[in-house]
Amino acid sequence: MLKDALPKIVTPLPGPKAREIIQRRAEAVPGSIKCAYPCVIARGEGAMVEDVDGNVLLDWVGGVGVLNIGYSHPELVAAVKEQSEKYFHAMMNIMTHEGYIKLAEKLNAIVPVKGTKRKTMFVNSGAEADENAVKIAKSYTKRPNIIVFSGAFHGRTLLASTMTSKKAYSAGIGPYPDGVYRAEFPYLYRAPGCYTEAEAIQYYIEKLERVFEEASPAEYVAAIVVEPVQGEGGFVPAPFEWIRAVRKICDEHGILLIADEVQTGFARSGKMFVSNYWAEFGCAPDIIATAKSIAGGVPLSAVTARAEIFDGVKDGIIGGTYGGNALACASALKVIEIIERDKLCDRSLDIAEKCKKAFLSWKDKYEAVGDVRGIGCMMGIEFVTDKKSKAPNAGLVAAIVVEAAKNGLIIESAGVYGNVIRFLSPLVVTDAQLEAGLSILEAAIKACV
């Protein structure tokens, strides 16, 4: 079966069938929607993909964190099929459907936001979840401004693009919405000077507090929005001690703390959410936005907050036609059931242990491997020209991505400088596939350094 297969290249990528389809893509699809991989999928199972030319590839991108339970899980297929035979859609503003309620109840039970009584709403994408989280915070607090961070990625809609740090994602689409202010994220590997970790965290807290002086007084800030592990920013985890300090600042000033768990959620971190770790530190967020792996590839996202916050939102502010679509809700309920039943949080930690051991050995072995970091199974390897200067080496990463794909491994770059390889393998990857992927990746590093 494909889900148990190992990578196998039968014709150089792209093969003849793939070349034909990629050419059609160039004619029919905007070129600004980039694709770095000369691969056209025919089918996928588990962590494996077969392309239209019969090549079998191991996917360590998983739709950029969408496929935590893998491709084509048979129980997920059955759940969506069963729902499709009843009805596809019922808009919640017009007619209640029970799947929406069941899923909201489940998320209210497992999403670790501050407060015991919780409510959840659904939309369709991570950007929509982030935008609605901000609207909810503003409507509840009656405040106009938010604070986001360097390295942040929150989506490509107008507000989400404004919140996103890297302006290559939104060049030429301004003017941008007002009231979005940026602080420096605690990127400890690139902290200035010779700080200890504690000193660096204090430095970044002071940079955050300076926003109140230089951009928006605290009493006008509705929310601080944080990715628990920055995705596009380079898989940079927010230190727990820094989060504790941010939570304290929010509590002192009546500011809501929003966790953007679009990419980090649903077992990726070794817990259902990184915010579970935050809660253990006594600093649970007020609002959590989730998406990506929530429904195994069916478009869905969610915003969860304590009931008091949602009850303070004006009528008409939130909602949408497809939010909480019946097929998506059926899929999400099954995804969560599989994650809990099959102990994929534990599996995430098991995978992380194996990969971290290999990645750290590469850090010792190769001058170009500058840093290895992450939380659970959401890990990044940062490549540099040399360890002393830490100069970003984006060219090397681009070459490694191409070389790995030639040999049957799909990986993706990330980072402010494009010099990080991110690890987002489906959590159903087998040990044999994991070892094969590690071998291909190290061989690619050796070939390119």
UniProtKB/TrEMBL annotation:
Gene3D superfamilies, alphabetized: Aspartate Aminotransferase, domain 1, Type I PLP-dependent aspartate aminotransferase-like (Major domain)
Enzyme category, top tier: transferase
Protein name: (S)-3-amino-2-methylpropionate transaminase
Reactions this protein catalyses: 4-aminobutanoate + 2-oxoglutarate = succinate semialdehyde + L-glutamate; (S)-3-amino-2-methylpropanoate + 2-oxoglutarate = 2-methyl-3-oxopropanoate + L-glutamate
CDD domains documented for this protein: OAT_like (cd00610)
Known EC number: 2.6.1.19, 2.6.1.22
MF terms in GO: (S)-3-amino-2-methylpropionate transaminase activity; 4-aminobutyrate:2-oxoglutarate transaminase activity; identical protein binding; pyridoxal phosphate binding
